[in-house]
Amino acid sequence: MASSRCSSPNTPTSRCATSSHGGAGRQCPRSTNDSTTPVIALATAAGVTTRIKLGTGVLVLAQRETLATAKQLASLDQLSGGRLICGVGYGWQADELADHGIAWADRKLALREHIQAVRTLWTDDEAAHDGQRVQFGRCWSYPKPIQRPGPPLLLGAVGHDRALRDVVEYCDGWMPIEGTEPIPQRWQRLKELATEAGRDPAEFDLSIYGSSGDQATLDGHRTSGAHRVVIGLDSSGGIDDIKRQLDIHRASIERHQ
């Protein structure tokens, strides 16, 4: 899976006064906003590949205009032959969210509504949405994604019960970051919550993000039930160094195909 780390449309120079990963006042590295815009990057990857999945890690939907974003993602899924996987997130920089009119306390509800609106555009011939944050009248939005009812939406969030319940309610899977939490236990908890909500746990996808890629770790993720693992690469050394890293990971990747 080729994954694009998603830059925000903007990152305030105040660098996040509040963060779900570090609390109030933590400074965010500038590299969090130095990556290319994900749809462009993944479209470039789609043009030179035929099988590899194309994913975002993660797209903060509530910070993006819904009509354009839904069409861009549907177009990418069409042009890639149905290979898109959408990692989505609540947002974790309070001042960045504020620039898009989203209060920190409202970010989870904002994501929920944007997902509802995007799914409507992906599935309905004449789509409309009249919500608190997203409103548009009856319209045609084409092309539709090849994957029906749309590309999988995986929530990238720390796996506390609130987030796992959101996965069960309106997503297709969970995308935790390796080394940040007890993934096997929380994956089991997600399946319990799915059963309680009347959904089949087998419907959900576990994609682990930012892996070290060492063999023992990959074996552990497979045992835990992961459907895929995204290995992190350090891009600071340039293209030759990236190729070197890929060569190092090739044997482990081929073993798990």
Would you write up a description of this structure?
The protein is α/β, with parallel strands linked by helices. 38% of the residues lie in helices and 15% in strands. The strands form 2 sheets. Strands 1-2-3-6-7-8-9 form a 7-stranded parallel sheet. The protein has a two-stranded antiparallel sheet with strand order 4-5. The longest helix has 17 residues, at 107-123. 35% of the residues are buried. The model is unreliable at 20-24 (pLDDT under 50).
Draw up the topology in text.
Layout: E1 2-4, H1 38-47, E2 54-59, H2 66-79, E3 84-88, H3 94-99, H4 107-123, E4 127-130, E5 135-139, E6 153-155, H5 161-170, E7 173-174, H6 183-196, E8 205-211, H7 215-224, E9 228-231, H8 239-255
Parallel strand pairs: 1-2, 2-3, 3-6, 6-7, 7-8, 8-9
Antiparallel strand pairs: 4-5
Helix pairs in contact: 1-2, 2-4, 5-6
Summed over residues and divided by their number, the pLDDT gives a mean of: 90
| Lateral strand order in the biggest sheet | 1-2-3-6-7-8-9
How many strand elements? 9
Shape: globular
How far the N terminus sits from the C terminus, by CA atoms, comes to 11 Å
- Work out the helix count: 8
Radius of gyration: 18 Å
Q: How large is the share of residues in beta strands?
A: 15-25%
Q: Main beta sheet, described? A: 7 strands, parallel
Order of helices and strands: EHEHEHHEEEHEHEHEH
Low-pLDDT segments, ≥5 res: 20-24
The amount of helix comes to 25-40%
